[in-house]
Amino acid sequence: MGESFDLDYRLGERLGSGQFGTVYKCVSVSTSENFAVKIIDKFSGCFDRRFVYSEIKITLLAASKNQRSVQIHQVYEDITAVYLILDLCPGPDLFDRIASHGSFYENEAAVIITELVEAIAECHRRGIAHRDIKPENILFGSNGRLLLADFGCAALFEKGERSLKGKVGTAAYAAPEVLADQNYDEKVDVWSAGVVLYLLLGWTLPFNGETVVEIEAAVKKGDPICFPKEFFPDLSREAEDLIEQMLARDPAKRLSAEQVLRHPWITEMSKTWELFEFKNYWVNMAGFWEAIISAFARPAAGSPISAFYLSLKILKRSLKGMKCASSNYIAKSILDLKDLQSKFLLELQSQPLDRELNVNLKVVNDNLATLQHGWSSWISQRGKAY
């Protein structure tokens, strides 16, 4: 434990607040590194030393050799407060991302929910139930990696037992057994993650109300989960199935975190996301080639160079318009471009070109060869037969 927060750190801007403390940016006096500090006021009505040091213990346990949880670096205490020095996550939390982005495509949501459930699963393997999974507690590190934060409501549990009790967390994300003040197990975190997934895909919550009391009543009422077309116009049946299993009212029928990670929607969407990323690579590279040919070649209409140029434009436009390019589409595009490339090379050999133009067109050709090699390697590395 450090001696004095005020001597070791300079307090910065306020970042946010919760039931048990306020978070600020702070800077180390000795290293000039940026951190976050959670200041827990001893004179607030919520202060309880046992809970504070339980949070510290659980956060340290969750973060040890775990890249999915916010780390505690130091702890200070004086007569007025306890200070927890934490990782600073400079970007917006998931709540802010959802607010500015709106609903997410399924492949985008799958990346976020996979990382979230991986973090939850790691906590559960360590015997920790977070009990307050919500977008505000889902942060992103400087490298974009998802981090689970705020273990103020967390508790240790015995595996295979419903040993947890207490009405904690946030009503809109809390499982019905929590709101009913019954004994429960770690699967309450899976319920909360299911609500987050529903929100990511539909930009709305499954249980709504004007007040906390109304929200709690909606959660406890037990109506089947519905997916209104106005919010979910193109939702796949696989996504619906996963949400329904994560929001199963009976904890015995609810998926565990490990089972969520093995659900077909998660495993298939991980493949789709790889294709989505590769599609973006295609768009960028096609744009690069198009710009070079446009600037240097100015090809005559009907020539192979012109055909190559137009194919790149069409490819880029069509890929940009797709949520995700299929592997078959990309593979066919490569075959088409390989044929055009052969004609393109013949055209270069048959007409005199100044040196500068020749060099730049060679760059285009080399990039096409690189893409073809990259696509083959990309498939080979994953061992997938597309």
UniProtKB/TrEMBL annotation:
The record's Pfam families line, in alphabetical order, gives: Pkinase (PF00069)
Q: Which UniProt keywords apply?
A: ATP-binding, Kinase, Nucleotide-binding, Pyruvate, Repeat, Serine/threonine-protein kinase, Transferase
- The reply to whether Repeat figures as a keyword in the UniProt entry is yes
GO MF terms, alphabetically ordered: ATP binding; protein serine/threonine kinase activity
Q: Which InterPro entries match?
A: CDPK_Ser/Thr_kinases, Kinase-like_dom_sf, Prot_kinase_dom, Protein_kinase_ATP_BS, Ser/Thr_kinase_AS
Q: Which positions fall inside the Protein kinase domain?
A: 9-266
Q: Which residues are noted in the entry as ATP-binding?
A: K38
SUPFAM superfamilies, per database record = Protein kinase-like (PK-like) (SSF56112)
Looking up CDD domains in the UniProt record yields: STKc_CAMK
Q: Which family does it belong to?
A: Belongs to the protein kinase superfamily. CAMK Ser/Thr protein kinase family. SNF1 subfamily.
What does this gene product do? CIPK serine-threonine protein kinases interact with CBL proteins. Binding of a CBL protein to the regulatory NAF domain of CIPK protein lead to the activation of the kinase in a calcium-dependent manner.
| UniProt protein name | Phosphoenolpyruvate carboxylase kinase 1
- The protein's organism comes out as Dendrobium catenatum
Which gene holds the coding sequence for this protein? PPCK1
